[in-house]
Amino acid sequence: MMEITDKLTLYWEYPFVRYALVVGILIALCSSLLGAILVLKCFSFIGDGLSHVAFGTMAIAAALNLTNNFLLVLPVTVICAILLLRTGQNAKIKGDAAIAMISVGALAVGYLIINVSTKSANISGDVCATLFGSTSILTLTKAEVWLCDVLSVLVTAVFLLFYHKIFAVTFDEDFTTATGARTKVYNLILAVIIAVIIVLAMNLVGSLLISALVVFPTLSAMRVFKSFKSVIICSVIVSVTCTVLGILISIVAGTPVGSTIVAADIVGFAIFSLIGLLLRRC
Amino acid sequence: MLQLICQNLTLGYEGKSVVSGLSFTVNAGDYLCIVGDNGSGKSTLMKAILKLKTPMSGEIMTGDGLMQGGIGYLPQQTVVQKDFPASVREVVRSGCLNRCGLRPFYNKVEKQIADDNMEKLGIASLAKRCYRELSGGQQQRVLLARALCATRKILLLDEPVAGLDPKAASEMYSSIEELNNSGITVIMISHDIAASIKYASHILHIGGQSPLFFGTTAEYLESDAGRIYAGLEGEQA
Q1: Chain A residue with minimal CA distance to B151?
Q2: Min CA distance, A259 vs chain B (Å)?
Q3: What is the sign of the dihedral through the CA atoms of B35, B39, B41 and B42?
Q4: Closest-approach residue (CA) in chain B for A232
Q5: Which of A45, A240, B114, B228 is the most buried (most CB within 10 A)?
Q6: Hey, which residues 4-63 in chain B have their CB within 8 Å of chain A?
Q7: ipTM, 2 dp
Q8: Half-sphere exposure of residue B27, counting CA atoms within 13 Å on the CB side?
Q9: What is the DSSP string of B18-43?
Q10: CA-CA-CA-CA torsion for B45, B47, B52, B54, nearest 10 degrees?
Q11: A176/B67 CB distance under 8 A
Q12: Do B105 and A164 touch (CB under 8 A)?
């Protein structure tokens, strides 16, 4: 036990560890806020789809030798998210099919561009790092941490201000439109904050593991809690706890950060499923 | 007092008309049933009245101070709602959204309206229960309470008894009748001709095959369309 605390205190001295923890908590908070909505709208895989778009855009940014690819990735991902979510319940191509198209398309094009343009000798290593984000959370700069802070405060504020509207639009879009609410505007706001969160989350766990961060805390909470408010509050707590645990364990055990966090989420889901089962028995 | 006037409406999807030459009026306190076969345009008509869809031609006008968004709507259930973690209270309160405007949270008056409507429909004891765990009849009551939160004057019901067992269906019908007796206009889409004749004051019959009909229930029973449909129903029973 002493050994572990010593190791953690030692690592706490390094700014990149503190940055990783701060950014990790913020992203866990934001992604779990929106997880419920995405799961219920059958957009569980939007994280995966959008992250592939972000991957494709990063490839283009790298090919163009842009130093700060965030400036290109953020707008492109936001636009894709809007295209996917704007139509809401009445889309011609339904959620899962639309996501599959965008996701596979962007991944293929991105990989193609990397292959053609890159000067690096280690292509598969680069791709792996971009997709799994094995180190990116540990190489955050101070500017990125600040950007992350500002964006997550904004996302949380917007979510709280529009909480009831978001609930109504998700639960029953037709009814909400019929009562004169501006459904299209709310869908747009939702699309924008989702896109912002996905781009943020890519920095933490990398593309392939984002969906886990969106889906697991929500599904865990839905095993036990019955109202929308309690599901959201619970999923935020689960998500932040699992992320902190995941980061700490990865420091102590020397495992990859992203996959350790998801492993913690899986354990969380198992525990909540068990509690849900026991509650139903009683 | 006239609340709704539809003049020479043509409705359809993607340039193809489903129903045309539709004219009818609804007065305050009426109980109008819209009947017709599947695909005859009943749901399309309802969406047009709610301004979710623009008619291909013709006009829909509202009177008696009825504003867009002042209509209480009971839609058919969607797939999303089957697995939605929401308490009954949260669902009913969401009917007050149009009273909020830009204010982010519900105020005391709106919460009271939601509580009153739950009381009125006998679901106050379910307030904390999870919507998806209720029976079909209870779920419809929750959605009806939500619709009542959105209106003081007029309710549009899209097959409110679809999928309910006979007991729950007749309870639903008597709740709707009570609301109508308290002065709320009811417009209902229905497949259930027998119940429509029993409860409605007016009938609108639409469909491509049979002639259009609009009039009081008594007139409907004397009309060609009415005799065919009411007769069919009688033979089945």
Answers
A1: A179
A2: 28
A3: positive
A4: B85
A5: B114
A6: 47, 50-52
A7: 0.85
A8: 8
A9: EEEEEEEEEETT-EEEEE--TTSSHH
A10: -10
A11: no
A12: yes
Q: Comparing A138-152, A195-209, B2-16, B25-39, which segment has the lowest mean pLDDT?
A: A195-209
- Torsion angle defined by CA atoms of residues A85, A89, A91 and A96, in that order, rounded to the nearest 10 degrees: 70
Q: Identify all chain A residues contacting B101, using CB atoms and an 8 Å cutoff.
A: none
In a domain, B219, yes or no: yes
CB pairs under 8 A between A and B: 104
Range of the domain at B26: 1-70+191-237
- Residue-number span of the structural domain to which A216 is assigned: 2-281
Domain total of chain B: 1
Chain B residue numbers with beta carbons less than 8 Å from the beta carbon of A168 are: 94, 97
Write the CA distances from A151 to A37, A144, A230, A282, B217, integer angstroms: 19, 10, 24, 43, 60
For residue A173, give the CATH number of its domain. 1.10.3470.10
Q: A180: burial class by Cβ within 10 Å (0-12, 13-18, 19+)?
A: middle
Half-sphere exposure of B209 (CA within 13 A, CB side): 8
A181 touches chain B (CB under 8 A): yes
Where residue B195 sits, what CATH number does that domain have?
3.40.50.300
State the pLDDT at residue A134: 47
pLDDT tens figures, A64-119: 877 666 678 778 888 888 787 776 555 666 777 888 888 888 888 888 887 887 66
Closest chain B CA to residue A228: B86
Q: What are B41's two structure tokens?
A: 């345009």
In this structure, is residue B10 part of a structural domain?
yes
Please tell me the total count of domains within chain A: 1
Q: CB–CB of B86 and A161 under 8 A?
A: no
Tally of CB atoms within 10 A around B31: 23
How far apart, in whole angstroms, are the C-alpha atoms of residue B45 and residue B22? 10
Q: What does the pLDDT read at residue B236?
A: 46
**Hey, are the CB atoms on A176 and B97 less than 8 Å from each other?**
yes
The minimum CA-CA distance between B98 and chain A, rounded to whole Å, is 6
State whether B52 and A177 contact (CB < 8 Å).
Answer: yes
Residue A194 contacts residue A51 (beta carbons within 8 Å): no
Q: What is the pLDDT of residues B104-144, one digit of tens each?
A: 888 898 899 899 989 888 888 988 899 988 888 899 999 99
CA of A198: how far to CAs of A72, B99, B205, in Å?
Answer: 14, 33, 51
